[in-house]
Structure formats: C-alpha cells, structure tokens
Amino acid sequence: MNGAPASSSGDAHADAIPRDVLISEVRAWARRMGVENRLREIHVRPMKRKWASISTRGRLTLNSDLLRQSAAFRRQVLVHELVHLKLGHGAHNKLFRSLVRAYLALDASEKKPGDLQG
Ligand SMILES: [Zn+2]
Fold this sequence. Notes:
single chain; alpha+beta; Zincin-like; globular; disordered N terminus; binds zinc ion; YgjP-like_metallopeptidase
C-alpha cells in the first residue's frame, strides 16, 4: 500500500477486495495468456458505462466497481479484455469468443468442484 491519494472514498464495503488484489489477478492472467509483455499500464477508476476497456497499445482500464464483484465475474471481465490484447483488435468474432471460452474453461478445470463459489 503506498501513499497514493484515494480517488474514491465510498469503497468501504466489507466484501470489496483491495485494488492491489485486482491488479495481481490481472498480472496472473496476463502471464498465463502470454500477454504480460504487451500489458503496459493498468488503471482502476470509476467508469460509467463499461466494466473495463483496453487499448491495442496495452493500456488496461478497469472499473473500480469490479472491486465489489465476485471473483467469477472479475475473471470474465479480465479474460475478455486480455483476449482483445492478445488478438490485437476489439472485435468479438468467433476466434475471440472461443479463446475467451477456452481460458475460462481452463481456469475452471484447475479448481476442485465446490471451490467455485465467491
Ligand atoms: Zn470486448
């Protein structure tokens, strides 16, 4: 935890995760998906209309409301954005959708049944 000023003050929900945890999740997925070198910047801030966005140059912006979402939901959002980075475009085409499905299935298969809640 560094001395950066808190950009949003109303984040005291008991079940919110720290921003650092979200960022480590992003880095773990980027490593696993082979895009760690392309991921240049990670920003967490309030967003009005989206959960996240990514530029082809590797600038990922995450909605700070993700800190209050379930792990399963965060995973879907992170994988979605990082597949855009991997493919280098923003299209939701067939290849995009099958890669997202494959990465999410990969993750589920590494967990024991009953380990998936939360
Ligand atoms: Zn998308």
